[in-house]
Amino acid sequence: MYRFTDIHAKVRGHPLISLEANRITFSAQVYKKRSRGEHRGRFYNNLHPTFLAWLKKFHAEDASLHCGEWAERSVRRSVKDDRNLLRHSAITYHCLAFKNPLQTAYIAGNSVGIIQNHYLNMNVPEADALRLYDLTPAKAVELGIL
Asked: Which H or E run includes 26?
């Protein structure tokens, strides 16, 4: 679950994304707390089909994963004091949808305690989290979002 600052490139040619292997490599830069050698180059192999579909769409269109500085500043202004809105939302929604703080902690590079104390107590309806994991590119077209 990347921070805004970690999203900097396109899917095509991205050094950490492999659509062929269906995985994203989480490097020591993402796992900032786990910088010892034995923790470098961790893999999360089971990408959720929804996110894989979006990555494939971005790859096919050669689109950037970065939302752009103007859009990022706009989001940050609308949500005061949240430097990692995308990351925090992803962690919260993953916890609610899958009810597995250990798996979420592994993916996010946090401890289970941090996940439980900071993300499970959010005032987000579980139904919203489940809808997020149903929002594929095809569904977005069907809904008129794309």
From this structure: strand 23-26
pLDDT (tens digit per residue) in 29-55: 555 554 455 555 455 556 788 988 998
Number of domains present in the structure of the chain:
1
Long-range contacts of 68-74 (CB under 8 A, 24+ apart): 72/4
Going 129 to 123 to 87 to 58, the CA torsion angle's sign is positive
Amino acid at 47: L
Residue with tokens 């095809």: 138
Nearest to 146 by CA among 43, 57, 41, 35: 57
Residue 110: Cβ within 10 Å count: 20
Domain of 8, in residue numbers? 4-142
Alpha-carbon distance of 37 to 129, in angstroms, equals 35
Report the Cα–Cα distance between both ends of the chain, in Å, rounded: 24
> DSSP assignment, residue 27?
-
